[in-house]
Design goal:
Blueprint: E1 4-7, H1 13-17, E2 26-28, E3 31-36, E4 39-46, E5 49-55, H2 77-87, H3 94-99, H4 105-113, H5 124-132, H6 139-153, E6 156-159, E7 162-165, H7 170-174, H8 178-182, H9 189-201, H10 215-223, H11 230-240, H12 251-261, H13 270-281, H14 285-300
Antiparallel strand pairs: 1-5, 2-3, 3-4, 4-5, 6-7
Helix pairs in contact: 4-14, 5-11, 10-11, 13-14
The chain binds a DNA duplex (13 and 12 nucleotides) through helix 6, helix 9, helix 11 and helix 12.
DNA sequence: CTCCAGGGATGAT
DNA sequence: ATCATCCATGGA
């Protein structure tokens, strides 16, 4: 397939992929290689457009014989372009979203710093499973765990001579063992990931069917899964269920809220912060949260950005 | 070496 | 309802 040319205004590919919402894209040449669901993609940004290559990524022993029976699953150019546009959420009204942010000094700084950062649409299971692995882990280590899970349990595919592994299916992880997961560096999270995979695989929980639930009901369902609490539920809602108001509060965001919005306050409970966030950041709160998170990490620390 | 990380589950106040 | 503690692991 030839390279796709996709218009992408108000978009920063590198910052979006390095902002701690997705953990598997790898820098290759002037762009990035990664999986979009069961497809593999190479994406490179040039100004206001993306140059992309998308394939089903199935390894073929012989490519010389492109007979009439094309391999099923190989996306057409139009389908591939839609896949990329949808994954990177190029349809989100980013200008409107940024204008909705409260005019704090800090929020203004974060908005300027994160120009072009978008909340992408990730597959539900992949997103939830990855964030179950994220508890008490640095971003660099989450990337390492994601890579280990993909290499051991995922399907090996190729794009531009580069190996890309899809995220393992629910069934594949449900049929593994805690011992094998421990070898991927999951530590105490292995038990939770395995239990959640099995609960979904058995049909006891159905991530896709929850798409129509209200925010509150969806959050409640997610929190019933092993290893999923309020924070990880909000991450899954924000990054995989298009609930753009969801406001995950991790250690970074908690620091920001305490210092910036609860300065000189004795007791600040999680409930207070959640209530404040919902009121203060509005219906695009998830975006505000991601901008505050990325800005805080990139300005309060050195290194770690590639 | 120590410190800390996109937390959650559990049991005690 | 809020709080203390423990849970494995490895990058910084």
């Amino acid at each position: 397939m030839r390279d796709l040319e996709i218009r992408a205004h108000d978009f920063d590919l590198r910052m979006t992929l390095n902002s701690g919402q997705v953990f598997h894209w790898e820098k290759v040449g002037a762009g990035f290689c990664g999986a979009i669901g069961d497809c593999v993609a190479y994406v490179e940004q040039r100004g206001n457009s993306l140059r992309a290559k998308v394939e089903d990524g199935v390894l073929r022993s012989r490519r010389r014989n492109k007979g009439p029976a094309r391999m099923a699953g190989s996306p057409t150019a139009a389908t591939a372009a839609q896949l990329v546009q949808n994954y990177f959420a190029l349809d989100h009204p980013l200008e409107e979203i940024c204008e909705s942010f409260p005019p704090d000094g800090l929020m203004n700084s974060a908005r300027a710093f994160c120009s072009g950062l978008r909340i992408i649409r990730q597959p539900k299971w992949e997103c939830l499973a990855t964030f179950i692995c994220s508890s008490m882990k640095q971003v660099a280590h989450i990337r390492q765990i994601s890579r280990a899970l993909r290499q051991r349990f995922g399907e090996k595919k190729q794009i531009r001579e580069h190996d890309v592994f899809s995220f393992p299916s629910v069934g594949r992880l449900a049929r593994t063992s805690e011992t094998e997961l421990l070898q991927c560096g999951l530590g105490y999270r292995a038990k939770n990931l395995l239990a959640t995979a099995r609960r979904i695989d058995s049909g006891e929980a159905d991530l896709n069917s929850w798409s129509t639930l209200s925010d509150g009901e969806l959050r409640e369902r997610l929190c019933q899964l092993p290893g999923v609490g309020i924070k990880i539920a909000n991450c899954a809602m924000l990054f995989a269920y298009e609930r753009i108001a969801a406001f995950p509060i991790d250690v970074w965001i908690e620091r920001v809220l305490r210092q910036e919005y609860f300065a000189r306050r004795r007791k600040v409970t999680g409930q207070m912060m959640a209530k404040f966030a919902a009121d203060h950041f509005g219906r695009y709160g998830g975006y505000a949260q991601q901008y505050l998170f990325h800005h805080a990490r990139m300005t309060r620390k050195r290194g770690d950005n590639k």
